[in-house]
Amino acid sequence: MLVGLAVLLSSAGAPDAGEGKAPLQDHPERRGLGVKLAGKSSTNTEATPGRDAGAAPTIEWGRSLFVRKAALLNKISFTAVMDQLVASSGGKIADRNELFRNWWKTAAGDECEELRPKQPNGGPPFSYDCSRAEGMLKDKDPYKEFGVGKTPFIIIAAVNRVDLLRDSLGGDCGEFRIIAGKHPDWENPAAPDRIHGEMLIAFEAVMPNGGKPERCMAIQKFWLSLSEKRFSDEEVAIWLRRFFLEGITLAEDGSVVDGDAVGPTTFQLPPAMHVDHLGASESSTGQIRTNSKLHGGQWGLREYRFDKPSMRLLPTRTTGSPEPTLFSKNSPDPEATNKLVELVAKSIRTDGSAPGPLLDSNINSFHLLPSLPEHLLAAEMNAEDRSLGDYAKILDAEGHPDLIGEIEGGATRTLTAEQIRKRIQSLSCAGCHQFSRTGNGGFTDDFKREVCWQISFENKHVTTESTDGEYEISDALKFVFLPHREFVMRKYLAGKYIKGVYWPGNDPKKEDMSNDAQAASIGLPHC
Question: Where are the domains of the chain?
């Protein structure tokens, strides 16, 4: 998708066609603390002991983990996000119009073909929709108000992904996301050139720890403080704007520092929305992901990063999602399929024949082995046509015999081959958004309680539709993902850094969990 070779290229030079920045292949939703601390006992003898409910810190999901209340988001706009990305480019991007226009030029015409993700091993390119309806956006103004105070894109969530934090000295502080949605009334202009349909854009910024892992603890204490009732919605909204768009200085306890109080025990944070946090830095693994269904087309999921030389958003492969056709006996790349078979086998059984990470019973930490080779990744994921995006369906209809054999050989007394297939499917973009339906996958939560996989909200996990001033979220977030993120946040905050090494706290008790989490546990396993 993006930037074209057919247009005049910037003085920084032309980007490599279809490459963008080669992504680190850690799964974008399952890495770091979320896997490391998932319902596992602490080995820290100095860990903060379990506290009773009265002493446990208050965590409100809607303030500290997944902000979706319009009154808390009204200081952040799509225009402001794009302006901040331009400002962080060091003058390499002229303005927000150029940024947006060049982004969507490559969804249309020759530029789409030129810059589609290519196979690094020289193999045949995987499926990628060129030219498509998103290309119409290049000629639209996404910033101009319409109607009565409406904007083409609205901010529907600000997200703290503490569970993605990598706590090593050269690690990062997790991801901090802004999610924008196309306003349902924006068609700009009327038929036949209107923009009809739905589109979500997630700016998923990785915040580096700057060689000071303790910075991450201060950040999480800051997010924790947003749950305090003494802070008004207006104050929280201002702090969120500073965190995401302006930069903020934090004390070790997470409190906001202004003016002359800056010192050696404070942490000066750049704005989370920064090109370096979205791919332009060699140490950054952030990304922008889109989920769209425009002009009667099918739901498609794609991924972008800033290319540092050209400072343009370029399409990359969908990190964490193997190409669906590799599961078929008619694979277009037999070498890649052989590598996929090997990866699945090692994810089911380790070299010592112990159960691998794919068989982990925790619904939030089972995974394929990390470092998924780049040439296995899909260029895009179709989340509507099962024959194009559903791994389990492809395995049933025309599955590669070696893959089927490894999966069937991995079945256990408590986990069937069909459940293993569905686990693999649920780890993909399309599986998480659409094809993985509610059902028993042999899962437990962080408290070892049985829990079932949950569905998205009509292909989305957050929507532009609101109830009582809050944008609606999926059952998967309510019953599975957010309880886990709270669990991880509590356990992380109960730990400590000793000489730059993080020692986790003990698991929180069930009664320590928030009212939101307590409500989500009612009726488990929610099958």
Answer: 33-521
